[in-house]
């Protein structure tokens, strides 16, 4: 590409010195002795720019063929427009232009659009040279400044684009101005009007210009320049948005693969911490897994699978619970309150929450009626399990009470002598909460493992099915509750409903059937 | 003499000898002095929970509050941490010894209780009678 561009460099030593020298992309140079300083100031970002500059300074002449066409030479004043596209073909003089008209495809004179140039650059397409603007005879200082700014912008954009994916060709189609063609072939037909316009302009420029014409030309140039600027800005916006979009898509894909939606979920729910959001997502996935395990257990029992096959399913269910305890352990580190207040569960579950989860002794109580027939030894085992879990629960509960007591003493006791000190102590005490939630989860996990130990494979399968269905129904109850019709807001109605719900929640003595 | 004043049930006050020496040695010596020995911190609520657990089972544990021993407490805590293989000082205490043998921290004690191995252990150590 660089060489191509270099080859296209067209310098002309003719014409009045130009005050503007644009060296950016090596696409166009307004080369002129006086403008070398300008060039230096610009500090081309590309090596080939400097190369072209060197070539320009040597006064390399470019013929009327393609090479020349691609290069924008600074003609008197012209150079302003060097906008960003490259390779730039630019006809320096009207003479050249007109003579070139047949030769190059892209020469057809539509204004160089920066936008198109960008895409073109990537695609190695040919760009149309800038039109009249380049012909400006005088350059004002502010033009030069604007030029500099544009140059810098373009440089930045160019750099950015270089790092991006190659633009699709649709960018070029979005160009509105002057119908530049970004493709290799340039529709000479589309360029014709501009070409003619250019020609017209060119022809005018050949004659001595009167003030009116000059003014008109200047206005035209100005207008064209502005529209090019707008187009450039628009395309730049499009490019950056597109890049952002592809990056977001990639991130999303990656996050999906990992099963987490960090940014989206955390950002969507404003007051949910990221640890909580992550856990909620993982819990939702766990619930889906739960459904799958339930189905496996159900069909496994109904199909009367062999014990060894059923064992695999049962042990899989135990691992499934191990997984949620592990996830909760991780979540407890980042947001223990999310767990302990039950914000991750449904309302009905939350109501009967114990230290961030189910109460093991309550679960066993619920199960005992469903687990018959049991051997005497099994009954003893279940009973002692319930007893020891009750003792452990009581111990943990008292420890938590002690924590609450010391916290109250810290933040409520006496006049606030040293507020920050008190708060620091209280914060330290709060960190103990994580330990309690973890011990409670540990208790739950041990209970499930012990159940698995006591029961036979088939019994364990039934037991886990009962557990899964119980919590499934509790969750269904919650959603029914939240979606129930609320015609009356009378408090007594509400309390009646609550009572009914409580009754429903009590463990029933008959087997749970599939919901 | 070093007494532990407790409000929850009774337990044997621990007597500490004013001998210096290796903290680990000291721990092992203390652990073998009673059937159930708990190394604890008076301000720690998890320690409170484990004391409650044993008392609820009818066991009278010997409790050593390490924060009440300004000279050796810290060293013993560090030694216990090494004994448990903990990298962080966060949740070392409480540490329980039964029959002179290390049982572990709260999670080990609870797991052992749920799985039904704690009670036989206590009985073997003479801390529990049927």
Structure description:
The complex is a heterodimer of chains A (515) and B (130). With 515 residues, chain A is mostly helical. Helix content of chain A is 65%, strand content 0%. Among the domains of chain A are: 215-247; 274-481, no CATH class. Helix content of chain B is 39%, strand content 13%. Chain B has a 4-stranded mixed β-sheet with strand order 2-1-3-4, sandwiched between helices. Chain B is globular and about 40 Å long. Chain B starts with 22 loop residues before the first helix and ends in a 5-residue tail after the last helix. At the A-B interface, helix 17 and helix 19 of A face helix 2 and helix 4 of B.
| Gyration radius from CA atoms of chain A, angstroms | 39 Å
Distance from N terminus to C terminus of chain A (CA atoms, Å) equals 69 Å
Helix content of chain A: 55-70%
What profile does the largest beta sheet of chain A have? none
Topology order of chain A in helix (H) and strand (E) letters: HHHHHHHHHHHHHHHHHHHHH
Number of strands of chain A: 0
Distinct helical segment count of chain A: 21
Please describe the biggest sheet of chain B, giving its number of strands, its sense, and whether it closes into a barrel: 4 strands, mixed
Task: Throw out a few tags for this protein.
heterodimer; A: 515 residues; mainly alpha; disordered N terminus; B: 130 residues; alpha+beta; four-stranded mixed β-sheet; 39% helix; redox-active center (chain B); Glutaredoxin (chain B)
Topology summary:
The complex is a heterodimer of chains A (515) and B (130).
Chain A: H1 2-8, H2 36-42, H3 47-57, H4 66-69, H5 94-100, H6 114-123, H7 141-163, H8 170-174, H9 188-206, H10 211-258, H11 262-268, H12 274-302, H13 307-334, H14 336-340, H15 347-351, H16 360-368, H17 376-412, H18 419-430, H19 432-454, H20 457-482, H21 491-505
Helix pairs in contact in A: 1-3, 5-9, 11-12, 12-13, 12-20, 13-19, 13-20, 16-17, 17-18, 17-19
Chain B: H1 23-31, E1 36-40, H2 45-57, E2 62-65, H3 73-84, E3 95-98, E4 101-104, H4 106-114, H5 118-125
Parallel strand pairs in B: 1-2
Antiparallel strand pairs in B: 1-3, 3-4
